[in-house]
Design brief:
Layout (H helix, E strand, L loop, with lengths): L2 E5 L3 H12 L4 E5 L2 H10 L4 E5 L7 H11 L4 E6 L7 H7 L3 E4 L4 H13 L2
Parallel strand pairs: 1-2, 1-3, 3-4, 4-5
Amino acid sequence: MAKIMIVDDEKLVRWSISSGLKRDDHEVFCAQSGEEAIEKAREVDFDLVITDFKMPGMNGAELLKQLKDLRPDTKVVVLTAYSAELSMQRAVKLGASEYIEKPFLVDDIRELVQTVLSTP
């Protein structure tokens, strides 16, 4: 069981990913903003953070940078509906383990999470 945080400004996205990951017995936390995610990351050492790229306030790129400064070993998956703005190379350069485009299937997220968590 892993500790995973979902960061997205859309409640339905947080709920759907959270529900899917809880079926795999992960301990799931949710944040609706980058700022809230950083506060939670100060308190909890997450194995994985799944974050939206485009959010009001702190975007996914800034969140990724701050998370890596705070908890360098935390793995991060970036969600994006804007693949033209976020290439895999840029996501990896920022410190992401993977990225996935919206819309997605929850089972695809579950499979990606399993892959990312099993990668050293």
